[in-house]
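Ticket #4471: structure output looks truncated?

Reporter: J.K.
Steps to reproduce: submitted the chain below (201 residues) through the standard prediction queue, then opened the result file.
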Amino acid sequence: MGILVLIRHGQSIWNAENRFTGWVDIDLSPKGIDEAKAAGVILQDVNFDSAFASGLKRAQKTADIILDTNKHWDNGDIVLDKRLNERNYGDLQGRNKQECRDQFGDAQVKIWRRSYTGIPPGGESLEMTADRTLPCLFDEIVPRLAAGETVLVAAHGNSLRSIVMEIEDMTPESIVKREIPTGAPMAYEYTSGVWTKVELN
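Returned output as attached by the reporter:
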C-alpha cells in the first residue's frame, strides 16, 4: 500500500491578480506562502519517502515549505518534472480573465477554461495536459506507490485535475466542474492498482 498526497501550489501573484498564468514562472503571493505553511502543518507528521514538483517555482516553493515543516523529511532533493506543469494557456497567459471575457465573450472563455477539449489560442486543452501528466504518474510515481512509498506531488490546478480524473475515474464532463483549491492537500491510498481517497488526520 502506498499513499499519494496531491497539493496545488499556494496562491500565486497572478492568481491574486486574476490573470491566466499557465507556463509563466510566477512566484507565490504572500497569501500563497501562508497557504503552503498551513498545508505544512497539516502534513507535518506524514512520513514522506519521496516528493515531486513541476518545473515551475510556485509548485517547487510550495513543496519546499511543506517539507521544511515536516518532522520526518530527510530524503534529499525534490524530483522536478515539467510534465506536471500547469496547462499552457498560450496567448491568454498574463492576461486578465475578465478582460478576456470582455473581448472574446463569456461562452468562449468558458470553453477555453472549462471544457475538456477546448484549446486556447496557442495553448493546451485539458486533454492535452493529461497526455503528459499521466505518463509521469504511471512511469514515475505509481511504481513508488506500488513499493509502499508515501509520495508528495506539488503541482497545479489543471495538471492535478487531469490526475484526479484518472484516479477517481471521472468523466470529461465531471472533471471540468471539479475545483482544485490552492494549498489544500488531498490524499489517496494505492493498493494493487486500486485508488481510495483517504482523509488526512
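Triage note (M.O.): checked the attachment and the full C-alpha cell line is present. The radius of gyration is 16 Å.
Status: closed, working as intended.
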